[in-house]
Amino acid sequence: MGNAYKVLILVLVCVLSFGCSHKKKPEESYADYERFRQSYAGYADLGGDWDWTEENDPTVSGKVLRRAHSAIGTPYVWGGVKPGGFDCSGLVQWAYRGAGVRLPR
In this structure, is the dihedral angle defined by the CA atoms of residues 9, 15, 17 and 19, taken in order, positive or negative? Predict the structure, then answer.
């Protein structure tokens, strides 16, 4: 009988402690978001036009980027690995393969 009371008290304490938890107000969450957004304001916006300055970049990374960039607008196809349609890992594998790097899938 003593163990049953201990378990009951433990459960009651847990339930009461969850009821006392602090939840952020929406204004606090927005303030956190604004601080985060402003801390990254200096970074380039990668969603705009691609301004590639070194068209003949001979490095592997340059080749990968040019090949991946050429696939912009290709439809998403689940499991796709060809220019007719890619999924995310298929695009990465295809771009690297074009630069001579074999990646496992």
Answer: negative
Question: Which tokens in the block code for residue 47?
Answer: 């969603």
Which pLDDT belongs to residue 100? 85
Question: Average pLDDT for residues 77-104, to the nearest whole number?
Answer: 87
Do 95 and 64 contact (CB within 8 A), yes or no? yes
Res. 34 pLDDT band, cuts 50 70 90: confident
Report d(CA 81, CA 77) in Å as an integer.
Answer: 8
> Rounded to an integer, what distance in angstroms lies between the CA atom of residue 79 and that of residue 90?
7
- What's the pTM value of the predicted model, to 2 decimals? 0.46
Match 């978001």 to its residue by tokens.
33
Each domain of the chain, given as residue ranges in start order, spans 60-98
